[in-house]
Amino acid sequence: MVPEARTPETVNEDLLELHLREARPMYRIYEPQTVCIVMGAGGNAERDVLVSRAERDGVPILRRRGGGGAVVLSPGQVVLALVSEVAFQFQNLHYFRLINNWFRLALSPLGIAGIEDRGISDLALGGRKILGTSLYRRRKLLFYQASLLVANDLKLFERYLRFPSRVPDYRCGRAHLEFCTTLRGEGFPVSVPQVMGSLEQVLREQLDRFR
Fold first, then answer.
1. Whose CA is closest to 40, among 112, 108, 179, 133?
2. Residue 58: CB partners within 8 Å, gap ≥ 6?
3. Domain regions of the chain by residue span
4. pTM exceeds 0.85
5. Distance CA 202, CA 120 (A)
6. C-beta separation of 156 from 72 below 8 A
7. 20-79 pLDDT tens trace
8. From the CB of residue 101, how many other CB atoms can be counted at a distance below 10 Å?
9. CA distances for 64 relative to 31, 43, 56, 70, angstroms
């Protein structure tokens, strides 16, 4: 696992650079230590983010490779970033579901069940989102990023993000606070270090045969 690092503009870009140099899978599991806003490659700050509020609060607006809407990363979340060569140039849904299932495998020993695949690439509990993902592809290169909502402050979503221009059907028009939830909010008294440790173990078991 590679320690947390960010460039001033693009989140986890160093993982891609390391992978291209060393030709082996690279991943990072971390809890964000500060609040930041991260937009997808095609994001527009004025459309997606309450920019003046973020600037007033000193919250940086960054980008990531891959699609998806703007997100707020903050303490209380677990982020996974993974770069690897894979067997197939396409089959994005297959890879979303495969890697998302690693979170399910990590959470099961902690007593967390009932996690659903929703939308294209979300995980949910009781119809409310607990994990969002992003994917960047270049031929057989795969760059996956996801954030799991463990015990973070969901009010930050309402504070900094506009209602997305594109949403999954299961959102049903719900505002951020009604659409998203956390593991703690669903009654699971797990800590971020517990989740990170369990996810680390799953990656060590799964990554050697990940293609």
1. 133
2. none
3. 13-209
4. yes
5. 23
6. yes
7. 899 899 999 999 999 999 999 889 999 999 999 999 999 999 999 998 899 999 999 999
8. 15
9. 17, 10, 22, 10
Residue 201 DSSP SS3: helix
Inter-residue contact 154 to 182 (CB < 8 Å): yes
What CATH number labels 13-209? 3.30.930.10
Give the three-state DSSP class for 86.
Answer: coil
Say if residue 104 is exposed, middle or buried (CB neighbours under 10 Å; 0-12, 13-18, 19+). Answer: middle
Token pair in block for residue 156: 């930050």
- Residues belonging to the chain: 211
Six token digits for residue 42: 């095609």
3 state DSSP class of 206: helix
Helix intervals (H) in 23-135: 45-48, 51-57, 92-107
25/208 Cα distance (integer angstroms): 9
What is the amino acid identity at position 41? A
Identity at 37, one-letter amino acid code: I
85-110 pLDDT per residue, tens: 998 988 999 999 999 999 999 999 99
